[in-house]
Design goal:
The structure is a single chain. By secondary structure, the protein is an alpha/beta fold. The chain has eleven helices and 13 strands. A seven-stranded parallel β-sheet has the order 3-2-1-4-5-6-11, sandwiched between helices. Strands 7-10 form a two-stranded parallel sheet. Helix 6 links the parallel strand 5 and strand 6. The N and C termini lie far apart (40 Å).
């Protein structure tokens, strides 16, 4: 049974990736520090589902702790590492930039060094579409992403750079996946779609930064997780976009959510933040060429499934701290 180490395993994307790996017969070693960046209740519920599988082992630890990570590598001898542990969020990175560098960049270095020590052949790094700020659409992987406009994006650029150096020096197969605005059931409560649904169902006003004309290449969680697992087969060094390939304006998202929740939105507009991107659009031809991947869930169906999950779990989700 092939063993895969998945970091940030209680997180939105990582928990779904681990679930797919377990269903395919992999043994999954999951690690997460269960920090309080957002309400732990979501993380614990995701984790409890994974812990029902006999192929899953969990350690509560931080990827910044090299010595404890070393013990996990020594004990389990993983054949691949999927690094989905990260400090996320553009705006919060302006408030506490140090933790973003220590987790996203230095934590990645710790994992790469242990991959070198224990001869782990495959390293997969989750990165971000935020790196493409200032470039023309659609965003292609070959663009020179050398001007990150937030500490979050800069920390991910640092992680990508050190990952390439370990591929070049030590022959580790590295795949960098640049995700585009992931949403879906059990998502992150700091992301717009979760926030909007939660506020609509609580009859609270929506807060929109900007005029609502900004667009995002929203990508459904199952498509992201499926693409992440598929990327384990890639060799060499590759950077791959995973995105929905159909950008949607924020005001359209709100219209659809009003329809699916049966609620009318009261909207408060705030100034657009200079660290945000006005629009994103993934060029996904590389994912199609290398892996045969393409998104399967359109925005309407994805939003319907997400609203359905809220309705099914509202007894506890309504108390999630936003």
């Amino acid at each position: 049974m092939t063993t895969v180490l998945v970091t940030g395993v209680a997180g939105f994307i990582a928990s779904r990736v681990a679930d797919i790996l377990l269903s395919q017969g992999y043994r999954v070693i999951g690690i997460d520090n269960l920090n309080d960046y957002y309400d732990r209740e979501l993380k614990l519920r995701r984790l409890s589902i994974l812990q029902e599988s006999p192929g899953f082992t969990f350690y509560r630890l931080d990827i910044e702790n090299y010595d404890v990570l070393d013990l996990v590598f020594k004990l389990h001898q993983p054949t691949a590492v999927i690094n989905l542990a990260a400090r996320a969020g553009v705006r919060y990175s302006l408030e506490n930039p140090f933790v973003y560098i220590s987790t996203n960049t230095m934590g990645t270095l710790n994992l790469l060094q242990l991959c070198r020590v224990y001869s782990v052949a495959k390293f997969l790094l989750a990165s971000t579409s935020s790196l493409y700020a200032g470039h023309e659409l659609p965003f292609q992987e070959t663009l020179p992403v050398n001007r990150p406009v937030s500490p979050y994006a800069a920390s991910k650029k640092g992680a990508e750079a050190i990952a390439y150096s370990y591929h070049y020096l030590y022959g580790i197969d590295v795949t960098v996946l640049r995700y585009f605005t992931v949403y879906g059931p059990a998502g992150r409560p700091d992301m717009s779609i979760f926030l909007f649904i939660h506020r609509l169902m609580n009859n609270s006003p929506l807060i929109v930064f900007g005029d609502g004309t900004q667009s995002r290449d929203f990508t459904y969680i199952d498509d992201i997780a499926r693409g992440t697992v598929m990327a384990l087969s890639l060799q060499g060094y590759e950077v791959v976009n995973l995105g929905g390939n159909h950008p949607v304006h924020l005001h359209k998202i709100i219209e659809l959510l009003e329809e699916y929740t049966g609620k009318n939105a009261e909207i408060f507009m705030k100034e657009f933040h200079k660290a945000d991107l006005k629009e994103t659009h993934a060029d996904i031809r590389t994912a199609g060429r290398l892996m045969g991947w393409h998104p399967e869930t359109g925005i309407e169906e994805g939003l319907k499934r997400t609203v359905h999950w809220f309705n099914e779990n509202w007894s506890w989700v309504k108390n999630i701290k936003i």
